[in-house]
Amino acid sequence: METILGLGKVDRKRLAEIIRGTKGTISVKESSAILNLSSIDVAKILARWAKKGWLSRVRRGLYVPIPLESRTVDVSLEDPWIVAESLYTPCYIGGWSAAEYWDLTEQIFSTIVVMTIQKPRNRTPVIKGINFILRTISEKDMFGFKPVWRGQVKISVSDPSRTLLDMLYDPSLGGGIRSTVDMFINYLKSENRNITQLVEYAKRLGNGAVFKRLGFLLERFASSEQFAINTCKSQLTKGNTKLDSTLEADKLITRWRLWVPQSWAKER
Fold first, then answer.
1. Domains of the chain by range and CATH?
2. CA 265 to mean position of chain CA atoms
């Protein structure tokens, strides 16, 4: 267990300036501007502070401050969302992480889902003991999110409609189709229900599989939404899609061009 060592007067002053001038994370670039020193000098200073236990390294060039009350550098991230924003911007928090935020599920997910236009090599990084899942999306698909404040940092989170569509595009982002359907039902019952927005977002995404799954679920759980259901039918693409690629699917719902498990075909 590494312990925290003392800092001299100059270092304490510099560290205080950096903490006041940053929000949650500390980068070489930001610190260089604050201290008016070269990036090379600042990188060395931050590395020295990390070695002494006043900062914790997240990755090369990025740190988080160690809480004053901590007696060791072995600390977890206070807010993983802030770190995600620093590392993967432009991005937004999505999938089950956003569903939790909007109270669409009572499940507790320990992994943070991040939707980013970056193309990181590692799609499942573990940062200071926190698991992340990264999904790359195109710049044109960066829509349908809302800003939320985490302390002094503004983070983008997919709104309820976009959250559902991302999970219908990739059910694994909702923990599988069964969990995603539970969230979809909760969405229909919630004050955030907005079927018009749901369909308009689906049009902007322009993905045939999303329309097949969405139309199928609307027909089953919101049959009064005939305009939305008919819109989904008008947007169907050729070929058949599985409701969830990870499930056995032996029944084809021809009107939706959707393969589903037999049990799903029987449920009405």
1. 9-65 (1.10.10.10), 77-175 (no CATH), 194-268 (no CATH)
2. 32
Q: What is the pLDDT of residues 216-266, one digit of tens each?
A: 999 999 999 999 999 999 999 999 999 999 888 889 999 999 999 988 876
Q: Please identify which residue in the block is written with the tokens 């060039």.
A: 61
pLDDT > 70: percent of the chain: 93
pLDDT at residue 25, as a whole number? 85
Q: Specify the pTM.
A: 0.83
